[in-house]
What does this fold into?
Amino acid sequence: MSEQPVKIIQKATWVGSIANVALAILKITVGKITGSQALVADGVHSFSDLVTDTAILIGSRYWTAPADKEHPYGHGRFETLTNIFIGVILAIVGLGIGWDSISSIGHEPTTTPGMLAFGAAIASILVKEVLYRWTIIQAKKINSRALHANAWHHRSDALSSLPVAIAVIANYVLPDLHYLDQVAALLVTAMILKAAFEILWPAIWELTEAEADSELEQKIQRYAAGDKDIGEVHAIRSRRTGSNILLDFHLLVDPEMSVDNAHTIAENFKSHILKEIDEVVDVIIHIEPYNCAERVNNPCCGDDKCKETD
It folds into this structure.
């Protein structure tokens, strides 16, 4: 990964960290002044985001490092581990919010937070939603799954502020329906846990060496069909390493062709794939003769006449 993507990761993370600190101080301070325990807890949640920010800053130094003797396929799995860490933290936060909500069901609040608490909650929602959208844009620029995961952590913070704002309004409009705060918090819990699952599952799937992209094989076959020098492509395998994909397959060419020409065809095809598919960073091609013994996609029919006219 070039220097520019690394700078984008660090810039997005530092901006998020500064926003988290500012919002945490704001929410805890206003929560203490207004007597809103929910706002104080939300402020502590904002401080928890610093944990994932730190993981991104430290992890990016490793997963952006080039391949070396100890890691010949690169260091992309460090990004996978970072995604798992963020997903776990997100799940813990979601479960914590849900547990607090369930525990407080049936308990009337001892204090009634004022509009100052509402203003702080709304400010948090707006800032964190803007931060989420901006971070998502940065993540897409460099195809960083870890930065994408951290963006969702920003949105979880915005969602966790929602029950606080609802509780304040509910106290004014429907003072007898104290449970609205808990119901809203449980809905937020479900959304946060869904985001955690969507971050964790691909990372865990990657560690099991699952295929990187179900549509990747179709793309490769389509590219091969458009190259007159390629007889067939099969045994396509792919795996993820962080945000990158490693690919290998068998490529069949005219058996009468020289090794030098076959190598040129393979290199040109490799360059085409790397140009068309941004996530693919390396391709290993095994060259084979296009004959009946090696063909898989369009096998010989076993009839002499068929072989002659094929």
Observations:
- Residues 62 and 243 are 13 Å apart (CA to CA).
- The first strand starts at residue 232 and ends at 241.
- The domain at 216-309 is CATH 3.30.70.1350 (Alpha-Beta Plaits).
